[in-house]
Specification:
This protein is α+β, with helices and mostly antiparallel strands. The protein is built from 15 helices and 20 strands. The two termini are 42 Å apart.
Length: 470
Amino acid sequence: MASWRGDELQNAKTGKGAPRSASVGGGGARRAGSVGSSPRLIAQGYAPAVVKLISFASGTTRATATADYVLREDAQLETHEGLILADREAVAAEMKRWAKDFEQRAKSQDAASMRVAVAGLKDSPEDRAKLEETVAVVFRGHAHALRIDAVRDGSIEARVVAVLAGRNEAGKAERLRITEQRVGSEDDGFSLRVLDAKSQAAIHARVEAISIAAYRLSVEPGAPAHGLDGLTQRLHQLADRAPAQRSDGGTVSNAVEVRATAQAWKEKLRSQTPRDTMHLIISSKAGVDHERFRNAARDFLHAQFGDHKFMFALHTDRESDGHIHAHAIVAVRDENGVKIHPNRQIFVGWRAGFAMAAQAHGLKIASTGAMERASSQSYGPRDKAIVDAADRPRAGREDRDIAYAERPANAAMIANARRRIETARTNPVRIPITERQRQVVNASLGAWSQMAKQEPQNTIALGMTDRLSL
C-alpha cells in the first residue's frame, strides 16, 4: 500500500478537506481536489478520477444480488481481508457474515391496497357517489385511486390504492400504518391485517363528520408495499379489471397511466429504507494497466473504508474500447456501528483519495469534478442494463428479455436509456444552473484561460477554455 500520512487518509475519508498529494510533473505540492491543480494535470493527459455512488441495498438478499451482479464476466471479488470470492456460493457465505451487522429496522410502509365499504349502500348512482365521497374523506390528505365494484348481494365496495404518508386536517404529517391482529388461539386462529389504533381513530373521526357511524365503515387493508416499485405494482393490480379514478381527478386505466401516477406520487411516499451496503464504481479511461488500477483501487478502498467490510472486482467494458472500472460494495456501518452519510464534500474527498492512490501507482489520474469540465458524462448502470437486455438478451433468459424489449410500454424507457448513454458518450457542454455550479465553472475557466495564455500551443487548454466559455 502507498505510504500516506494518517491525516491525509482521514481527510479523504471524511471529506473535511481534500488530501495533499505530491506534485506530478513539476511544481510544488498541490491539493489533489483543487481546481488549481487539476487543469495542469488534465492538460498533461491525466484522466479525471471518477468515484460514483450507484445505489444502496437493504438486507442480505439485495446486498447479495448486487455482489452477484459484480461477479459476472468471470470477475473475482476480493474482500477487505484479501479473501477471493470466485463463485456465488462464496459470495452468499460472505454476505451472511456481513448480515450480522445489518440494520434490523423494517422498511417503511408506503402504499397499500384497501377494501372500503359502508354498510347499507346499494348499487345505485346515489350510493356510488356516497361511497366515493366516503373514500375521499377516509383518505383525505393522502394521494389515492379508487374503483367501485358491485358485489353479488347488491351492495358496493371500493377498491383503493392509497399512499400511506400524508397530512391530516391540521396540516401535520400523518402516516397510516398496517399491523397484524391475532384472531383465535395460536393453534386454530389466524392473523388479520388491520389499521393500527391511531390510524383507525383518525379515520373514524373524519367519517363521523359526514354522519357515517364508525360501525358502518369497513376498511380492510392488504399487505403494505414499499417504495415506487411497490406502489406501481399495487396500481397495476387496481387498474387490471377496470379503470380507477385518482384523487386529483385523473384516471388510471393502462400501464402508461400507472407509471405516470406512480411517478407523480413518488415524492409523497416519504419512503425510508435501511441502508446496509452501498455500491460504488471507480473508473478510468481505456488503456490503463489493469494491475496498477487494481492496486490503486485496493489502496483507495483500504484508505477510505479501512474500518468497514468491503469487496471489489474489476470489469472491462468491451464496448467502450476497453474502459476499465472497479465495482465496490461497502458495508455502510463501520466496525463501531457508525454509518456513512455521503454528501458532496465527501465525494470531493473520495475523488481526491482515489487520484492520490492512482498517482502513487504511476497512473495518470487527477481529482476533478464533472462541473469543472462542464461535463455531461453521466448515466447509471440501470440505463446500461435496460439497453443490454434489449440489444443482447442474456443467456438462459433470452425469451424474457426479448419480450421485455418488444413490450410497447417499455419503448419510451428503453429510448430514454439510449439517449442518456449517447449523451454521456458525446458529452455536450453541461450548462451550469445553480450559483454554486456557476462559481465552479468560472473558477475552472479562469485556471484554463491562464494556462492557455501561458501555453498558446496547448490544444487541451485552448479546447477547455472554449468549452467552459459557453
